[in-house]
Design brief:
Layout lengths: L17 H11 L4 E4 L6 H14 L4 E6 L6 H13 L2 H4 L6 H13 L3 E2 L2 E2 L2 H18 L6 E6 L1 H11 L4 H14 L8 E7 L3 H7 L10 E4 L5 H14 L6 H11 L4 H15 L6 H13 L1 H15 L3 H13 L5 E2 H6 L8 H17 L3 E4 L2 E4 L2 H10 L2
Parallel strand pairs: 1-6, 1-7, 2-5, 5-6
Antiparallel strand pairs: 3-4, 8-10, 9-10
């Protein structure tokens, strides 16, 4: 096993997720799935492993695609179709040029204007939706079912939501996507697994659009349990001829607190650098943790993600709440977190709604966890970094 930090893993580097993978595969054979997972848990690795599994036994054509870079509906459809057409099964369909379709529609969809209390989308919406429906119907005659794994869908939904404060554009897109999943012709040939490091359920609740995803089966991916994390560290150490004793492995897990591969790999990497070929020790582990906390690039994406997930000014609200939580390892009460927004959201009713939504997203995205009525950082490492570099 390789010491890989931050990117999806495959093959023998994919460790400890066999049970989750088989469970997700079983569910996705019959249902569309909403995969809910905090960031850095390893969802992309699980999605790629699922695509590989169904390809191996030819039970479906597995298609993985990230839509984080899409800025409008046409680009979303283009990204998904491109991923389909580049599979072995998709190449046999001999589709028309995707680029031609995109040129006809992408700019016009991007140019939708907000007018009054509504959005002038009717004509353009029908055009891109009709083209998209036709393209998806064209893949259904293929002999195998399609399992389409779409990553970072909530980021795309947030992108188009920011372009239309009325919510009409987001509703139009999500309703079209739901209708696509409900096509009678697609009942045995088309399955979707939708994922993202920001929960789609949180996004739709914020915009009162939960009816557009009520056909999806919720499925959650969490951290390793203690036993799996211990085996992971033991195997990783063995791979690098750096044997980690049981006590040292337990200390690593204690420092990580939230047992996700990203943090375990990061601590192991820092310990490797400290040990330099010698048997690793507890003082070296302590020094390695300090080295890791000093690496702002390791944690900086957590800061940057707030603007992407919330936009302005909600990202400032979230930072204020996180700063309060970072000061106490045991966390703070929800009421105190709501009070810290008083100066920024004067209306008490609106402040309560905003605080609840922020906590919902921060929990789903892996920042905070509610334990015994107190909101605390899920990761001890991230809390210590936040306390040192962000406050």
């Amino acid at each position: 096993m390789k010491n890989i930090i931050g990117k999806p893993v495959t093959g023998e580097n994919f460790f400890g997720r066999e049970r989750e993978l088989q469970e997700l595969r079983r569910i996705s054979e019959d249902e569309h799935v909403l995969l809910l997972a905090p960031r850095r848990v390893g969802k992309t690795s699980v999605l790629c492993a699922l695509a590989s599994e169904v390809e191996k036994d030819a039970s479906a054509v597995g298609v993985y695609v990230s839509v984080a870079a899409a800025t409008n509906e046409a680009q979303f459809v283009e990204a998904v179709l491109h991923a389909i057409y580049t599979t072995k099964g998709g190449k046999r369909l001999k589709p028309n040029s995707i680029a031609t379709w995109l040129r006809r529609h992408a700019g016009r969809v991007r140019g939708i204007k907000v007018a009054g209390t509504g959005v002038d989308v009717d004509t353009l919406t029908r055009e891109w939706q009709d083209e998209a429906n036709s393209a998806f119907e064209g893949i259904l005659p293929a002999p195998q079912p399609w399992l389409i794994l779409i990553d970072e869908l909530p980021i795309f939904v947030l992108t188009i939501a920011k372009k239309d404060p009325t919510g009409a554009r987001v509703r139009s897109f999500l309703q079209w996507f739901r209708n696509l999943r409900q096509l009678p012709k697609a009942s045995t040939k088309l399955r979707f697994v939708l994922a993202g490091s920001v929960g789609l359920d949180s996004v739709t609740r914020r915009h009162s659009l939960t009816d557009t995803i009520n056909d999806l089966r919720d499925w959650r991916l969490g951290p390793y349990d203690g036993e799996t994390a211990d085996r992971f560290l033991a195997e990783l150490g063995h791979s690098y001829r750096m044997e980690l004793g049981l006590d040292l492995r337990r200390l690593i897990c204690k420092h990580a607190e939230w047992l996700i591969p990203y943090h375990l790999q990061g601590i192991f990497s820092a310990l490797r650098e400290r040990a330099k070929g010698t048997p690793p020790s507890e003082p070296q582990l302590d020094a390695a943790i300090e080295d890791l906390l000093a690496r702002r690039t390791y944690f900086s994406s957590w800061e940057e993600r707030l603007r992407e997930a919330f936009g302005t000014p909600e990202d400032t609200f979230a930072r204020t709440m996180l700063a309060l939580c970072a000061r106490d390892p045991n966390g703070v009460s929800a009421s105190l977190l709501g009070q810290c927004l008083t100066g920024m959201v004067p209306d008490p009713i609106e402040r309560g709604k905003t605080a609840n939504w922020l906590l919902d997203v921060l929990q789903n995205d892996g920042y905070l966890v509610d334990q015994a009525g107190r909101w605390r950082f899920r990761s001890g490492l991230l809390r210590r970094y936040w306390e040192r570099h962000v406050l």
